[in-house]
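Exercise 7.
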Amino acid sequence: MKTGVSQAPGDYVYFKSQVPLHKISIGDKQWKYYDFGPKSVPPLICIPGIAGTADVYYKQILSVSKKGYRVISVDIPRVWNHVAWVHSFEKFLDTLSIYHIHLYGTSLGGFLALIFAQHRPRLVKSLVLSNTFLETHKFAAAMPWSPIVNWTPAFLLKRYFLSGIRDGSHEPFIADSIDFVVCQVETLSSDDLSSRLKLNVNVASVGSLLLSDSFITIMDTNDYCAVPQQLKDQVSERFPGARRAILKTGGDFPFLSRPDEVNLYLQLHLRRVGGEAQLDNLLGTSNDDGAEQSNNDNNGGNNFGNLPGQRNDGANDSAYQPGSSGQNGDNNGFTVNKLSI
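Solution. The predicted structure, written as C-alpha cells, is:
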C-alpha cells in the first residue's frame, strides 16, 4: 500500500471543479458536505466509513445525479457518541430543510445509518447498507486503549487507521481506491480520527427498525473487507427480506473500485423503493445556485432482476452478482476485528 501523495484522478479533478464543498456550523459541530442534483426530491445521503470523507463518494455524486436524483455526501462530524450523532444529523437535515431521506452507508457509515433509522424512523425512507455491522462489541474488545484515544498523537491514530486496510498486491482498480482513501485519511485531524474511533468502539447495537425489509438493500463485496464476515452475515440475518446485491470484487471501497456496479445498484434501489427522480431539471450544484443541465442517458429497469446476466438465489434473499472482471476471493474478511474501515 502506497502512503505517499498520489496524483489526483482526472475525474476527481473534474468533480472538484464542478461541485463545491459546503461547510456549515450547527451548534458546536461543523458539517462538511457535497450536495448535487435536483433539490426538489428526497436525497440519497452517503455516509462514509471510519477512514472516509465526503470526497470518497464523488463517483456516485457525478453518476447518480445524472439520473435525476439528489445526492449528498457528508463528512462524519466530531461527535463522540451515538446519541450525539443522531441529534447532530437531525439538526443538519433541519438546517437544509430536508424531511425525507434515503441513506447509503458503508462500514461505520452503515452502522450510523441504521442507528439513525432506528431513532428517527419518520425521516428515513430506505437504506442501502454496504459491508457494515449491527453491533460494536467486537471492535470495542479489540481496542482496550480506547479510553485514552483523545490523547493519542495524530500520527499514531493514522497508522492505526491504515493498519486496517489490507496490504499486499491488489488489482489496479482496488489499489487505486486504497490510495485515494489513504490520501483522505491524511486530511483528517486528530479530533476527527479520535471521534470516529469512539463511534466505532463505543458499545452499542442496532435495535428493531420500523422500516420494512423491502426498503433495504444490502450491497456487499465478495472478496474481502475489514468488517469480518460474521458481522456482515448478522446484517443479512436481521433483514431476511432485504434485497441483496453481491459484488464479486471491490475490497473495502467498492464505491471507488467498482463505481459502475455500485451506481447501477443505487439507481435500481431508488427506483424500487419509489425514490423520486427529476429528469427534466437536473444537476443543481448547490442549495443556492441554479446551475443545472439536462441528461438523456436514463437507463430503464425497475428492479435488480432486469439486469442481464444476474441470478436470483431466493425469494427473500434476492442476491445478484454482477459479471465484473477480476478475481473472486474467498469472502472471509479480516480475522482481526480491531477496526472497521
